[in-house]
Structure formats: C-alpha cells, structure tokens
Specification:
Layout (H helix, E strand, L loop, with lengths): L31 H21 L14 H15 L2 H15 L15 H13 L3 H13 L1 H6 L12 H15 L6 H21 L24 H8 L8 H17 L25 H15 L2 H17 L12 H15 L2 H15 L19 H10 L14
Length: about 400
C-alpha cells in the first residue's frame, strides 16, 4: 500500500495493565491526570481557534467548514463540561450562521441549511427558548418534501444528499428526545433512498449482486461521506426502514458487495473500480467503512463483519496519522473515532489505548509538519474538529463521530 501517512511512533497495546495505567483504569475511566491533560489542551486550542476565526469566511454558514460547525463544537463542549458560557458561544455562532443560510440550495446537516437549523433548535431548547426552537424545527421540516421528492436531482449520500438531511432529524431527536420529530419523517426519507438505490441497481444491472447502488456525480463511491458505507450505516438503524425482511433482502447483500471490495491490507477503495489502496480517511477508506461494518454486525450477527471492522482498526493504527493533519474528515482526529467505535462495541482496552495515542498526537498539534487545511479552524477540516475529539475522549462510552454517528 502506498501511503499518505506519517509513521506511527507509538508502541502498540501489549495487553499488560502497566501500558494503560497512566491513561485509564480497568473500567475504561480516564485517570485524572490524563483527563486534566485533555481538558487543558481543549482550553488552549480553543483560544487559538477563536483567534483564528477572526479571519474566517463571514458567509460560510455550514457545519462542515463554517459557523454552524463552531456552534456544534460549543454545544458539545457544553454537554461535556456543563459550562454555561459554552452554550452562550454556541448561540452566538449559530445566530451568525442563521443569517447567511444557503436558502434551500443545499439541504444537508454538514453542507446545507439543515445543519444550522438543527443546531439552532437544540441551542434554543437548552436555553429554554421553546418558541424559537420550535420555529427552527418547523423550518427544518419545510425542507422535508423537497428531500423526499429529490427535486433538483438530489443525491442520497451524507454530505450533499438525502442522508445528510436525515441526519439533521436524527440529531434533533437525539438531543431533544426521540419523538421530537415523528419516525414517519425519517422512514419516508429512507423509503426514497431505497427506491433510488433499487432504481440505479437495476439500471446498471447488478441487482442480483447488490439490490441497491448509489452514485454521486456518476461515481459509485464507497466511503462514509459520499458513498455506500455511509448510506448503508443509516439504512441499518433500527426502525429507520419499516419491515425487517427488507433490510435483510435489500441492505445485507448490498453491504456484502462493499465487503468484497476490501483490499488485502484491510482498507477499502474510494470508489467501485478504483484499485488505489491509498486513502485512510473517514471520508474515503477504512476509518469510515468501519461504522457500516459494526452496524451490520449488530443487525445481522455475522462474525465476518466484526472481523472486517477489526481489520479496519489495524489499518487505522498503521496508516491513520495523516500528512493532511489533525481534522475529522481526513485527519488523525477523525481516524481516532474508529478506535472509539471499536471500544464501545468490544470493550477491549486495546482500542481505547489506541484512541489515547492518537489523542496524544493531536495534542502535539502543528508539530509534525502536516499540511495546513484550507479552513484551518473549521469543524471538519481544522482545529475545531480536533478539539471536539479531545473533549469526546473524556467520556469514551458516550463518544460519537460528529454529524454522522447515531
């Protein structure tokens, strides 16, 4: 495998209690020293980020690279540290975001108007401003019909498509209670996605091998951001599709097709037909495919899915410290979430240890000669995402990859 990674300088977990005792106890609770180190680094990087944001694009409302992403970070920090000033910051940033919406042009959580509206709803709700929260939820639901109908050739993937809108509804329910947005809204989007996937599978004549197929700009992408793994991860969530047999009949064989694309290294290609074993990012490659595999294991109980997920973990450990930097979409922080997902699913301390080592790398921000991203302080490309991860590591069992994991 050619690589875009820096060499991993850390010794791997050796199974001895001594290798983790400075980090966490046998229950997976972080030591006060390590937790303190994480918290101090969060404060330090926040100050750097705040300063850097003074020159950020004033018109970027998105969660991916804009103001809504910073609001989401502060909302998360408020959940972790219970510090009221963080909620106020979230309000400031999301208010800014609501002033520069794309106006229906993009409908997703990460790259469109749904993200700012969903984040604002939660911020208002936590501030006990119920009327404004309801108003944001109503505006969010006004986009629902366009998404279900798929007007303007809307794709199905996470960054720009139906799943990205779906995540906004999931986010509101996760934060404010499961019935805030009725399940039928969520099911209608998944029905539209299934219809779209069956349609393309028939058109490209692979329905006997994969009853579903999806593409983005004529490419059949595999990863979490634009591709099959991200879509199937959502289609396998309990209750998202009515009728369990359809999940078995349509989704399982489609997941199996993705599994067959695995490289000998354990990594996955960016797209179907792409033979380059190069990218180890959340957006393309093993660090994003792992969520599909873990969910498939939960739903179908086939040991091979867990085996492949563990192989993804090995790929990330070996090639996951990227020259591209420390971000979520294509950086060390996003890759470290693969270990946290494995830890939550297996309770094996090896994965938590590895997440802690990647956190150590991230705490040495800027010292490895990595590339500076285009939006260096943003949530998905830059420093905000790294801060989000370091704070998430404080409560490993509660951690979730932001704007994606359910």
């Amino acid at each position: 495998m050619e690589t875009r990674a820096l060499m991993n300088p850390y010794a791997d977990y050796d199974g001895r209690p001594a290798s983790t005792q400075a980090l966490f106890d046998s229950q997976g609770k972080l030591t006060s020293e390590f937790a303190q180190r994480l918290s101090s680094k969060v404060s330090e990087l926040l100050a750097v980020m705040e300063n850097g944001l003074k020159s950020a694009d004033p018109r970027d409302c998105t969660s991916y690279t804009g103001w809504s992403g910073i609001a989401l970070l502060y909302l998360h920090l408020h959940s972790v540290f219970r510090e009221p000033s963080f909620l106020q910051k979230a309000l400031d940033y999301v208010s800014h975001s609501l002033k520069c919406l794309t106006r229906r042009h993009d409908v997703t959580f990460l790259c469109g108007d749904a993200g700012p509206l969903a984040v604002a709803a939660v911020v208002y709700y936590r501030l006990q401003r119920a009327q404004e929260a309801d108003e944001c939820i109503n505006r969010l639901l006004q986009l629902h019909q366009t998404v279900v109908m798929g007007s303007g050739g809307l794709p199905d993937e996470l960054l720009y498509g139906r799943m990205g809108y779906l995540y906004s509804l999931i986010f509101v329910n996760q934060q404010l209670g499961q019935d805030m947005i009725p399940m039928q809204y969520i099911q209608q989007i998944n029905e539209a996605v299934l219809a779209s996937g069956e349609n393309l599978s028939r058109r490209v004549r692979i329905q006997d091998r994969s009853p579903l197929m999806f593409e983005w700009y004529q490419e059949q992408y595999v990863g979490a951001a634009h591709g099959l793994a991200g879509i199937y991860y959502f289609l396998m969530q309990p209750g998202f599709i009515s009728g369990e047999e359809r999940v078995h009949r349509l989704v399982k064989p489609s997941v199996d097709l993705v599994c067959r694309l695995k490289f000998p290294s354990g990594n996955y290609p960016p797209g179907i037909g792409d033979e380059h074993d190069l990218l180890v990012h959340w957006c393309h490659g093993a660090p994003g495919v792992i969520y599909m595999l873990l969910q498939a294991y939960k739903v179908f109980g086939v040991p091979q899915y867990m085996e492949y997920a563990l192989q993804c973990g090995e790929v990330v450990w070996r090639w996951g410290l990227l020259k591209k930097g420390y971000g979520l979409c294509h950086g060390a922080a996003g890759n470290a979430y693969a270990f946290l997902a494995l830890y939550r699913n297996t309770h094996d301390p090896k994965h938590l240890y590895r997440a802690c080592m990647f956190a150590d790398w991230c705490m040495n921000y800027g010292k490895h000669g990595c590339r500076t991203p285009d939006r260096p302080f943003s949530l998905f490309e830059g420093m905000a995402g790294t801060i989000y991860f370091l704070a998430d590591l404080l409560q490993p069992m509660k951690s979730r990859f932001p704007a994606f994991e359910v």
